[in-house]
């Protein structure tokens, strides 16, 4: 069923606004999120309240981040407005830690993310992973598939590695374009990202992992001894039991972590000497 109010609102392309309008899918998403009154929930991009309104029924307060003043004007007229703590801010540089310190508990973040910023926003949120309980996002299908891709798959890349380093990721719903207004040109997926409690991965310096994967996938058709030649010799790779003739998409997350940690130890040894 399509919600009539969406026909009266003109979405702005610069904010990547595509509003979810299917009631059944909205109900399913609320069940997945399963909000509790004792929890701190934060919604990024509430839009016209498709998720905001039903979530508010479970809470005394819902924190929302919205950059569009037209959306804010709309929300002020809604019956659930008194339950909202609104920040008119860009989610890409918002200080999420302030919310954590105010509430003294982990934050649950959710939202129908604008497709044009979803990847950058997820990477930004990983910098705050220690204050996040979980994240539930509507994403463009390709981005969702990149999050969960494994070595050997076409979509496996830097985003897959960094995301899986931080979180256990599950695709929970597949959603067709006609369930949004305006109708996007791509399919969507609803995804849960839950930070690892006991991570299978470890690096001393996440910046080194980021740098190594950036170089490896910049020229993903090159073999490692060429793409990472500024970091490792062929003998280094062999010593780490990583085939120097592998291409970037065939190297596991654990192996990338090995490379990052080896580079960290080299730098530390160089400094100490």
Automatic annotation (TrEMBL):
Question: Does this UniProt record's set of keywords contain NADP?
Answer: no
Instruction: Read off the InterPro entries from this record.
Output: KsgA/Erm (IPR001737), rRNA_Ade_diMease-like_C (IPR023165), rRNA_Ade_Mease_Trfase_CS (IPR020596), rRNA_Ade_methylase_Trfase_N (IPR020598), rRNA_adenine_dimethylase (IPR011530), SAM-dependent_MTases_sf (IPR029063)
**Signal peptide extent:** none
In which broad location class does this protein mainly occur, judging by the first location in its UniProt entry?
A: cytoplasm
Q: Where is the Ribosomal RNA adenine methylase transferase N-terminal domain?
A: 25-197
Return the similarity comment.
Belongs to the class I-like SAM-binding methyltransferase superfamily. rRNA adenine N(6)-methyltransferase family. RsmA subfamily.
According to UniProt, the name of this protein is: Ribosomal RNA small subunit methyltransferase A
Source organism per entry reads Buchnera aphidicola str. Ua (Uroleucon ambrosiae)
